[in-house]
Structure to design on (747 residues):
């Protein structure tokens, strides 16, 4: 897993460098070539609309079905199915002697489903496990398909031109009848998943339970497999046999990082799929005669890379940022606590706390104390005076210092009184708990301990006024001796 | 209690001559049991005795080589809504993108059929089931963020939401904390009080005697099946567990005390 970001970055760099290189070369020849190409694309003259429509449709189908593949841990199955359809495409071509999309669809679907049956059959009748069976079927069917397609091309029968696109994807070769078929199949996929969302969820999460609840698990499974085959066939022309599985898996995996609910995952995967496919078409258009499949896959990978880093909950950078914020907050709270204790030691005489006092209390250098106070100033909890040598708490900082000390002392009291800890054992524990006690837990503790005034060491437990109340209120239950 | 014309009560579950084989190797042979309605039945036996397989074969999750299963006098598939199921916790991926409520609502899918959406009443019902297992505060929690005991409670809530008359539970006590174990026992007793029949695969002999009305001692075939007082004997347990002395020495003591008196 550690290698994933590196691999992605290399891919991304390669992708970016590649396109720049090309742009540079193109501009050497004709100065405004790239700009012109972009302009041409957005004029949406044929074949651009066909390519874009095809890309959006296949992105949607692949994203939706890919989500189920990913959550069911059947990614390899998608890969196998996408390779296994190749002989079917060839058979469809032989049957119609043209690139008739319907004949190719029927052939591909039948052969694809036959491939998945062979996998199950190998697994059932031998000791060979799923992964090896998938590998065998994938390679065999793919090899068979390559031979058949080469034979067709060599014999030159019918209109065999453009069959090459099936390997690496050629969106420019999409015809309007191809797109019409894609539209029908994508719409069917959307309808199927909307109508049967819950049963599909149940058989994906817990097939045994779904079976016991009387759901037709085998039928639903076969339907999903069939529509998966459809999605693959729909994408073949534009993405290519070799890379279709990436378009099934990557947008879905991206969505899986973005959310914790399947229905949202489906939508996100559909959108990411559509976006990646359209971006891929755009890039391959700019590149002139470059195949569209690899660009679609690279676009999807780039989006995945972004989600890997920035996804709201599961992104690695997001998590790192959260951890960093958290530890900064803990450091600030510890400084606030120290300032409180300095003030407490001189019985709240005067308002400012000098860096000297702070450093002495925490047994740290003046520089460290200065940095800590500066962090408080940045967080709006303190201001400084006399050349930064004296720290004054802002009203907010004051509240927060009271709260953190209260949390610490309440927890110590809780451990001694209710959990039977020795008073000299509780400090370490309270050092950690004080930062995570929520308001609700604090109320609970106060109630449990009958609104205590002093901690096990005899120190006053400060009371924190509510935000609306005057901040000048004395900070203790007793009220005396505070200022 | 359902009775047919002859006045003999129909068993909640009847298994007749059930045989299950994996790769031509039989793992269960000739299982014959008839479970009277309203009982808590513990299925015990050594590892590999086919306890989980028996449950799965009854549910139709693994194919039967021979034999048949009837539930309340009807073929199993005639009325799946009367049967609730709690699979082993490890059988699912707990990173799956669903929250606790989603899982419990799955208990309603059997009654909803393929196309209907869960209604408000279904959702309220699911909330009540979560309440019963003490998991309502976690309804919106992603299932990955649950402890083992909490996961088990979610599975139980889902089974409760099925509103079935017969429940089959596969190792619900496996790897749960003491609080959850106690909660499950209470739940089982509530189910019995409401006249439900529950079969529980159980791996802990020392508590089996206390928890269940009837025991099925299983080791690829039925060694004994009957009321706990009659079946929980040294001789029969020895027969079930073969030469596994460590297990037997553990139970020898509890057998020595004699069957527990139990109110019902």
């Amino acid at each position: 897993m550690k290698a994933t970001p590196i691999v992605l970055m290399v891919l991304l760099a390669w992708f970016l460098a590649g396109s720049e290189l090309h742009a540079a070369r193109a501009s050497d020849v004709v100065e405004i070539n790239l700009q012109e190409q972009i302009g041409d694309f957005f004029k949406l003259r044929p074949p651009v609309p066909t390519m874009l429509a095809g890309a959006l449709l296949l992105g949607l189908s692949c994203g939706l079905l890919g989500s189920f593949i990913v959550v069911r841990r059947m990614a390899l199955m998608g890969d196998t199915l996408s390779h296994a359809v190749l002989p079917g495409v060839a058979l469809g071509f032989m049957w119609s002697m043209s690139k008739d999309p319907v004949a190719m669809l029927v052939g591909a679907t039948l052969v694809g489903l036959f491939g998945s049956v062979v996998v199950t059959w190998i697994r059932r009748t031998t000791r060979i496990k799923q992964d090896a069976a998938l590998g065998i079927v994938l390679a065999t069917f793919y090899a068979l398909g390559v031979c058949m397609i080469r034979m067709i091309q060599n014999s030159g029968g019918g209109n065999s031109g453009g069959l090459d696109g099936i390997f690496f994807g050629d969106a420019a070769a999409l015809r309007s009848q191809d797109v019409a078929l894609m539209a029908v199949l994508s719409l069917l996929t959307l309808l199927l998943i909307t109508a049967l969302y819950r049963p599909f969820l149940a058989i994906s999460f817990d097939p045994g339970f779904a079976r016991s609840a009387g759901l037709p698990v085998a039928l639903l499974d076969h339907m999903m497999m069939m529509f998966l085959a459809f999605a693959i066939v729909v994408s073949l022309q534009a993405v290519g046999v070799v890379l279709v599985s990436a378009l099934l898996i990557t947008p879905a995996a991206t969505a899986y990082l973005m959310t914790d609910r399947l229905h949202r995952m489906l939508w996100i995967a559909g959108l990411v799929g559509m976006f990646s496919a359209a971006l891929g078409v755009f890039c391959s258009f700019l590149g002139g005669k470059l195949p569209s499949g690899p660009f679609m896959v690279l676009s999807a990978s780039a989006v995945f890379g972004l989600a890997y880093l920035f996804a709201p909950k599961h992104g690695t950078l997001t998590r790192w940022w959260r951890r960093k914020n958290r530890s900064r907050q803990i450091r600030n709270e510890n400084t606030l606590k120290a300032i409180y204790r300095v003030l407490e030691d001189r019985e709240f005489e005067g308002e400012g706390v000098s860096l000297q006092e702070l450093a002495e209390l925490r047994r740290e250098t003046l520089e460290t104390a200065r940095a800590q106070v500066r962090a408080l100033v940045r967080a709006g909890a303190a201001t400084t005076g006399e050349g930064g040598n004296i720290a004054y708490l802002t009203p907010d900082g004051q509240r927060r210092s009271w709260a953190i000390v209260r949390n610490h002392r309440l927890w110590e009291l809780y451990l001694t009184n209710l959990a039977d800890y020795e008073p000299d054992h509780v400090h370490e524990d309270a050092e950690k708990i004080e930062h995570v006690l929520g308001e609700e837990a604090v109320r609970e503790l106060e109630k449990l301990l009958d609104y205590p005034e002093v901690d096990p060491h005899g120190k006053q437990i400060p009371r924190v006024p509510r935000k609306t109340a005057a901040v000048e209120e004395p900070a203790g239950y007793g009220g005396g001796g505070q200022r | 209690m359902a009775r047919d014309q002859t006045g003999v009560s129909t068993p909640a579950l009847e298994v007749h001559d059930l045989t299950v084989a994996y790769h031509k190797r039989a793992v269960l042979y000739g299982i014959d049991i008839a479970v009277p309605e309203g009982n808590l039945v513990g299925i015990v036996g050594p590892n590999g005795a086919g306890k989980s397989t028996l449950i799965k074969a009854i549910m139709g999750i693994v194919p039967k080589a021979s034999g048949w299963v009837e539930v309340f006098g009807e073929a199993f598939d005639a009325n799946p809504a009367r049967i609730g199921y709690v699979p082993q916790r490890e059988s699912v991926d707990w990173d799956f993108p669903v929250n606790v409520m989603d899982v419990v609502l799955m208990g309603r899918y059997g009654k909803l059929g393929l196309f209907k959406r869960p209604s408000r009443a279904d959702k309220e019902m699911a909330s009540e089931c979560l309440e019963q297992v003490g998991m309502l505060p976690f309804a919106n929690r992603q299932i990955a963020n649950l402890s083992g005991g909490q996961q088990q409670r979610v599975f139980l809530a889902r089974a409760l939401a099925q509103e079935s008359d017969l429940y089959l539970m596969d190792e619900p006590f496996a790897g749960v904390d003491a609080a959850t174990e106690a909660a499950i026992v209470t739940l089982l007793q509530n189910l019995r009080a409401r006249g439900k029949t529950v079969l529980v695969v159980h791996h802990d002999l020392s508590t089996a005697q206390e928890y269940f009305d009837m025991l099925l001692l299983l080791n690829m075939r039925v060694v004994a099946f009957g009321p706990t007082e009659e079946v929980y004997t040294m001789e029969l347990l020895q027969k079930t567990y073969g030469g596994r002395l460590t297990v037997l020495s553990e139970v020898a003591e509890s057998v020595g005390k004699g069957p527990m008196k139990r109110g019902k």
